[in-house]
Amino acid sequence: MNTKILVTYAxxxxxxxxxxRAVADKLGxxxxxxxxxxxxxxxxxxxxxxxxxxxxxxxxxxxDMVTFIVKNQEALKELPVACFTxxxxxxxxxxxxxxGVPIFLDPQLAxxxxxxxxxxxxxxxxxxxxxxxxxxxxxxxxxxxxxxxxGGVLDYGKLRLLPKLFVKLIIRGAEGDFxxxxxxxxxxAVIRPQLKKA
Length: 198
Ligand SMILES: Cc1cc2nc3c(=O)[nH]c(=O)nc-3n(C[C@H](O)[C@H](O)[C@H](O)COP(=O)(O)O)c2cc1C
Description:
Layout: E1 4-9, H1 16-29, E2 33-38, E3 50-58, E4 60-61, H2 63-71, H3 73-76, E5 81-87, E6 90-91, E7 97-98, E8 101-105, E9 110-111, H4 121-125, H5 128-138, E10 146-151, E11 153-154, H6 161-171, E12 176-177, H7 181-191
Parallel strand pairs: 1-2, 1-3, 3-5, 5-10, 6-9, 8-10
Antiparallel strand pairs: 3-4, 7-8, 11-12
């Protein structure tokens, strides 16, 4: 039977939809029927065999993503679920999971800390556990098959004053499109077999 997969995303400036679309297209090429939807428009999860949920880091995982996972725990626990983030900084540590959930790091995004025993604030904020751990804690019924961490996009022209100042001063992000399509496709190859309902 054809697997029916929901790929849904939250976004602030619009670039995460491109990652979600790449995931959806690649899953579709593997024979699945895929619906791509903004997270705010998802009404019925129960009609799907699997779900992929993605959102940028906006200090924490995008608020709409956290709300969605927590609110829909009961429905999501019935499905294989994979999640992804988009972001500008990620600290590479030896751990291959967060709270027992396997993780996949975009190799162009993940950078090891300068001194692993003495990480600076920005390195601590950018660890995989700090990025997604609190969401996994808030939604204990949902155990994703994998969480992918991918480079995102920073375009100061698309940000209002306060977010712009925040990213300039705190995140210290360089402008650019850091989406790594090869890494995204590699991740789809990892999750595809796991999205089949057991
Ligand atoms: C207000 C704000 C906060 C952000 N916080 C983080 C962060 O904590 N860590 C990080 O790596 N990137 C952070 N970013 C960068 C975004 O995650 C990145 O630009 C992402 O690709 C945006 O996706 P979007 O275009 O779908 O909104 C932040 C961006 C904004 C605007």
